[in-house]
Write the structure tokens for this entry.
Amino acid sequence: MLNQIKTFEGNVLALELTETFTEADAQSIKQLFEEKLANGAAHVNLLIKVKDMSVMKHMDWRAFVDGEVWGFKHFGKIGRCAVVAHSDFIKAAVKIESKVLHLANSAFEERYFDTDQLDEAMAFISAA
């Protein structure tokens, strides 16, 4: 399930994934992202908070893959990305992903934040 944690003016989205990830969730992310671009944002800064790895157990994998394909097509429109979780696996994945994706888009900056650092993550995506 996708929830918007906080509504921002401008180019910032703060979202939380809990329990499941469905096709409707993927469509909501696309819609919110495209609304930011339609309102004049050159890029979108994104915060994704993941409760824990249990979301993977109940994920609609087709929706996930479709969302990833859409994300790669719009990759140049992503500015800062904050991933908030409490998972060593996600932390390691973000570390690797941020280095690899930065090679394709030098403006892209991704960071991992533990769940108790949510305010810092909000400041990170709001700063640019």
Observations:
- The mean pLDDT is 86.
